[in-house]
Amino acid sequence: MIVLLAVALAACGSGKKDNEGSGNGANSTGAAGSNTEQSSGNAGQSEGSGDSGDSGQSYRIAISQIVEHPSLDATREGFLAALKDAGIEEGVNLTVDYNNAQGDPTNNLSIAQKIAADPNDLVLAIATPSAQAVAQHVKDVPVLFAAVTDPLGANLVDNLEAPSGNVTGASDTNPEAVRKLMDFIAEYLPDVKTVGIIINEGEQNAVVMAENAEQQLATHGIQTVRAAVANTSEVKQAAESLVGRADAFFITLDNTVVSGVDAIIQVANEHDIPFFSSDRDTVERGAFATVGFKYYDHGYQAGQMAVEILKNGKKPSELPVSFPDKLDFILNLKAAAEQNITVTDEMKAVVQDPANNIIE
Question: Exposed (0-12), middle (13-18) or buried (19+): which is 117, by Cβ within 10 Å?
Fold first, then answer.
């Protein structure tokens, strides 16, 4: 009787998928103002990690994402793709509880608390604020992070090679990327004497990257000036404040700033100011250049770590923090024209994969 009742209840909830932010039904249990989406696996399969890896195994994963923008969304998509390629597929044998904090710290904390109270096999936290909140509250379930710039500085792990707790993941930065981009500015844009950095100084990852950029630019005698923001609505005003004070713009992997990047592109285009970013998606939208990678690949890397935990029984402490290893220059020639940049053959020659990384 108990088994039949459990199967019947599972069947009632199977296959349902709420729209983000709908707030309807039992699946939207996130914090007020946040987006929560839950999709279920096959009815009749019990949730929980279990001990076997047979075809009857099912899984439940919670995802906390600080805000919605292309890089973070692509990270999530790549993560789920890696699971699917390993036979763990959303809607088949995987239940995904997706939560988006919409950039709100209160939502972010409430989501982490909710996830800690739920029966998950693994938690993925996308971006530093989400990872910090989840790591603070989830202690008895494996936690993976992605799109985190400085896991040590964020106090997510105590050792990159052998984390001691229940947290590990994929960092989205390679110090070489910032160095190469700053060297590119110095070599190919000699008229740039000052670089303006639009930044939310409350984001620890953004501060680390900005400091790296400032140090590298200083080796070339190039000055920097910061324009601070507290939220996305301030991004355009910050960019405008740099007009006349900066010869080029640079932004880090700053969730607040990237969410308002269209405003920076508008100001850069109107005033012929070269705009450099730290991610491919922003270049595709209208920044001129970056040294980067595909966030889908980054998420896939984190997904492969999840497979090691879910299917192969690895502990987070057995998985070193991973870093991007497919760095390349990415140039947007249309953006260059909008920002009055003359792109030379020498500039194009630095791109290793021009077919994919020179955008026309």
Answer: exposed
